[in-house]
Amino acid sequence: MKFRIKDLEKYLIGKKDWKKIAKELNDKSFETIYDGKFLDIDILANRYSNSASLIGIAREIASLTNLKAKEEKIKIKEDKEKAERYVALKIESNRCLNYFGRVVLNVKNSKSPQWLKEFLKSYGINSINFLVDLSNFVMIEYGAPLHIFDLDKIHKNSKNLAKIIVKEAKEKEVFISLKGEEYRLPKGALLIKDEKKIIALAGIQGSKTAEVDLNTKNIFIEAAVFDSEIIYRVSREINLQTDASYRFERKALALNQLNGLERLTFLIQKYCGGRVLKGVIKYGDIEKPQNIVLKLERLKEYSGIDFNKNIVVNILKKLNCKILKTGKDYIYVATPAYRNDLNMEEDLIEEILRIYGYDKIGTKLPRLERVGKENEIFEFEDFIRKAIRKTGLTEVLSYSFIDDNDLENFKDLIKNYYKELIEVINPISLNFKYFRPFVFINLIKGIKTNLGYYNWLRKNNIGIFEIGDVAGINKNNVDEKLNLGIALTEENAKKLLLKVKGILNFLAENLGFCRFYYPYKEINDEIFELAYDIKLESGVNIGFLGLLSKKILSFYDIEQPVAILEINLNELLKEYNEEKFYQPIPKFPAVLRDLSIIVPEYINSDEVEKEMFDTVGDLLEDVELFDIFMDVKEGYKSLSYHLIFRDPKKTLSSEEVNNLMEKITKRLINKFNAEVR
Amino acid sequence: MKEELENILKEAHQLEFEIKTLEDLENFRIKFLGRKGLLNNFVEKFKDLPREERAKIGEYFNYVKNEIKKIYEDLKIKLEKPKKIKFDIAHPGEKIEIGYLNILKESIKKIRETFVKLGFDIEKGREIVTEYENFDSLNMPKFHPAREMFDTLWIKNKIGKDRYLLRTHTSAHQVEIIKNKKLPLRVAIPGKTFRHEATDVRHEFQFHQIEILGIDGGANLQELKGVLEIVFSEFFNKKLDVSFKASYFPFTEPSLEVYIKCVICNGKGCQLCKNSGLLEVGGAGMVHPNVLKEAGLDPKEHYGYAAGMGIERLVMLKYKIDDIRLFNSQDLRFINQFRL
Q1: Complex ipTM, two decimals?
Q2: A424 neighbourhood in chain B, CB within 8 Å
Q3: Can you give the pTM of this predicted structure?
Q4: What is the structure's pLDDT at A454?
């Protein structure tokens, strides 16, 4: 909020150095910018009700400096006739906390004088007419949002008594704003009514039905406090936010409202004349000072500073707190009633520390008898990141959202993993409508952009990866997990798949698993030309890999093959055993034999290899598939392996190896109908 | 027969010292090792010997042949002028293509490591949390105006009784952490956070924060300042003093804004720090008694601090990155620059 220096001057006694004042405010109270004519002060939300006013800021400055705050004297000439003779209150909702009012008869409204117009302009408020402008003046001066009704537009009964009723709206009641616009109100909105109609939407705006105009003669001034919550909710639901609603949302002070009412009445009488009827119509209690015990030990615990009691007492006095009693280790304090933000010991500690100066707080380090530990998922993630990076892929970050097109493109895959996707009610844009179910989807877009950037270099093999949270709904719960996504591209699809396989082998090796297994994935071929699940030896499924279909590629406007891979790291971590033990370096030589077999095309090499290991056990150290030759005859393929035999206890003779080989070939012939070449 | 072989070897040894040119050497080769040379001639002679004798002589023959070959090879190396490889170092080298780690992830890692050194545990939260976790548990009931500070992305799906949202801050895990951990605790929670905010060079709707939480064991403002000073100094590789300014958050009391000396102008005042010499780098404070109560602690018996800071901003300051949107761009021209 921007305050004119020339206005603030009137509320402070003493010699003012505004540059210094601005610095003090900025360091100890609110972010403040001083430009010679204005103080632009960013008032904190919890201090709004007692600080967003000329008097509030003057008090704040007084608490930080040697200046003293002062208020203008209020002298109202009251008539003998009582206000109650004209207005009666009927409060029917407990969301109205206070309601004060005064009646002034025979005022003379007019256009505002120049000084008032200028004043309001510098606070961003348009001039309406003298009465309304004075009420806005008091809003700035006291921080009190008040409202003036034209008493003659309010319905009166036969005894000329106006009943002001505060009640909650029924379903679909309509409010007509000052601009004459109609608003359909939500149920429970707080209304000010007379016996026939709505005259104001409480705390937000008056209605045209009882609006003050240049012909207004008799007025009723309202100074109320409404529940901040209802104002917050209603003003947003109907999308009508005003200076008043902004203040009521941040809690209006009854004390301010009452003082503001008196001040406004005084100003109206001074400038517009009129008879002020006797008495203030009152409903509800005003704020009282709070009594709080401040323990010096607590202050020390929080700040690490061993305060001298006198310093603390002086700061509290500067804040207009009353010291009720002091003991050796405590101070018993009564807060000023207007400081509705001071309710507990911790609030006082904040006041003392900020005014004493946070810069006087020293530093120390934690002294716990233990070391810090990272959640294991972080270490695991780092481990995977480093491994994947070594395979030549670069780590990217992408947005955690996908759009309707992505959903449509991959819906058959998504429904294998989630019951439904998580949808954002108010997305930033339609591109970010659903929380991502997989990492890889946005990486495809990354491949596309990077191919564009690099095409002048004729670089067309790009590989990227990301580790991040993905989620969907499963079992009526948010199923959020940490996934690794990979996307890579190059001109030759076969080379690309081999690269993916190479990355997975490398990963398996780094993790200390023998290998991953790749059962063929049955999935809509509109998504993948080829797809495989990724399984561990234990049978646990940890993800999938696939070569994107031509249809998907053309959707994302990519002209060369793209392979993707997605692995759930939470599952993988469960299977991962970090312990690494030294393996003795073999003492006896290995024997290498080659074996080529012809098997039906559908036989998976994994099964063949597993069969070999099962047949001869530990003596077979390793099997390496080095050649696959498709279509060796219709429906058959040829598989060629290096077999490495080793006995840890002795040198294997060629006869022994021959026996082992024979066993293996026999088994393969039986099991797979294999033919040995 | 053996004698003959001995003589051949002797002769070879004699000739060895007379060979001066490659031509001499070639003659030597033809004479002894050539197709019609002395050794091949000899083979013709002894292949008709009885088996036993043949084996004996054969062994010696091999010895002699190897000796002569050795003479030949040695001389060849000696006489041949070493050929130098022709190479111009101006030739472009092989293009080494490796992958790089992400600057933001590595920065988070560095920050995590500092916290671990200071005795903090590092925990992982969730990006999708309940309204209770993000707001109510942090002393921000429904319709609290402070919720306005957090423009929230809400989740549409009906999931149990709770309303879900994308966490607007990592503070959403405070109550859960306090409930589940042994006291005294020191915890840092890094992670992605979300706000409903228009994006531009300085604003992004998806960014990272790290939450810092300390309860009991002397977890006060002094320690908070000490911890933050170490964390910022380590991150920027220079000693940076931390200063606090009064602020307001519903979940802390006192509430503070955390500043460091401007890393661009070293506190002298520049455009970035609006001539203040200071940069705001996070929010902090002492955990509000209502939050402690929510976590089942008696605020009279326990106290602690909490702080949160945005990570992108720190990385941008450190590396002079001028557009926050680069982090989520997947642009390799950006990521590869840092050579991580």
Answers
A1: 0.85
A2: 153-156, 166
A3: 0.84
A4: 67
